[in-house]
Amino acid sequence: MSLPALDTEKVHPLPKAKVLALPEKVSPTTGFIQRALPVANSIAARVLPPMITLLLLLGLWEVLASGATSSLPPPSRVVTDTWELITDPFYDRGGLDKGLFWHLFASLQRVMVGYALAAGIGIAVGTLIGQSDWAMRGLDPLFQVLRTVPPLAWLPLALAAFQNGEPSAIFVIFVTAVWPIVINTAVGIRNIPKDYVNVARVLRLNPLEYAFKIMIPAAAPYIFTGLKIGIGLSWLAIVAAEMLIGGVGIGFFIWDAWNSSLISDIIVALVYVGIVGFLLDRCVALIASIVTRGTATS
């Protein structure tokens, strides 16, 4: 008698074998290249587009300004005319004859003082308006009118009040930066979620605990939005204000170069103004990102 053949796959299904590939031996040099290549690609993707755009614009500027009738110097002539300003920004021959570093440093000092005053007072007043309906009704219409006054329109009034150019320039910075800080802080305070307020009531937080544990963290993204707008406006206003008050400062340097028909000096100064303004903006954005743990917009 013959037995039926067993279907071994149905009785005991055998697992399919997997062929594992042994890891290849990678030399240290190859490993470094494999790790560095994605980083290099990422950097190139960020750096190359603006560099190519800049080179194209410089090339177009060089072509358009190279004519005999052009009133603006081409980039090559700007570099030649301002080589000392570019290579030695720290020279100081006394009086107003200083390198660009000292002019920028004087302007930054004025901006920092005016901006710090605007930040402190603006956040305090914005908090008051955000928490009090009476303060909101009383102050908000006044601020909405005052914030539309151009910054330089305050300068004659400041000169009459302070009888000195230095505090007048700082006042112009203050009055330029304070409005966005006040308004954004007030909006942030008013937009604190009701749940947060209810939790504070349940936990019976005192005013100081409420301020540091609920109010400031919740309103921080709005506050830093106002601070970021304020630093940009401050840097814009100081250049214009220094053109009028004179003394050491990047605004006066530009105005003095215009009076001396040094167009190349003006162009170099504008490049420095743009770079410093960009760095100020990035600094405030970095602080905002750290304080708010990335919730503030960059």
From TrEMBL:
<dbReference type="GO" id="GO:0042918">
    <property type="term" value="P:alkanesulfonate transmembrane transport"/>
</dbReference>
<keyword id="KW-1133">Transmembrane helix</keyword>
<feature type="domain" description="ABC transmembrane type-1">
    <location>
        <begin position="104"/>
        <end position="281"/>
    </location>
</feature>
<keyword id="KW-0406">Ion transport</keyword>
<comment type="function">
    <text>Probably part of an ABC transporter complex. Probably responsible for the translocation of the substrate across the membrane.</text>
</comment>
<keyword id="KW-1003">Cell membrane</keyword>
<comment type="similarity">
    <text>Belongs to the binding-protein-dependent transport system permease family.</text>
</comment>
<feature type="transmembrane region" description="Helical">
    <location>
        <begin position="43"/>
        <end position="64"/>
    </location>
</feature>
<dbReference type="InterPro" id="IPR000515">
    <property type="entry name" value="MetI-like"/>
</dbReference>
<feature type="transmembrane region" description="Helical">
    <location>
        <begin position="233"/>
        <end position="255"/>
    </location>
</feature>
<dbReference type="GO" id="GO:0015112">
    <property type="term" value="F:nitrate transmembrane transporter activity"/>
</dbReference>
<feature type="transmembrane region" description="Helical">
    <location>
        <begin position="168"/>
        <end position="189"/>
    </location>
</feature>
<feature type="transmembrane region" description="Helical">
    <location>
        <begin position="142"/>
        <end position="162"/>
    </location>
</feature>
<keyword id="KW-0813">Transport</keyword>
<keyword id="KW-0997">Cell inner membrane</keyword>
<dbReference type="InterPro" id="IPR005889">
    <property type="entry name" value="NtrB"/>
</dbReference>
<dbReference type="Pfam" id="PF00528">
    <property type="entry name" value="BPD_transp_1"/>
</dbReference>
<feature type="transmembrane region" description="Helical">
    <location>
        <begin position="112"/>
        <end position="130"/>
    </location>
</feature>
<dbReference type="GO" id="GO:0005886">
    <property type="term" value="C:plasma membrane"/>
</dbReference>
<keyword id="KW-0812">Transmembrane</keyword>
<protein>
    <submittedName>
        <fullName>Nitrate ABC transporter, permease protein</fullName>
    </submittedName>
</protein>
<dbReference type="GO" id="GO:0006811">
    <property type="term" value="P:monoatomic ion transport"/>
</dbReference>
<dbReference type="InterPro" id="IPR035906">
    <property type="entry name" value="MetI-like_sf"/>
</dbReference>
<feature type="transmembrane region" description="Helical">
    <location>
        <begin position="267"/>
        <end position="291"/>
    </location>
</feature>
<keyword id="KW-0472">Membrane</keyword>
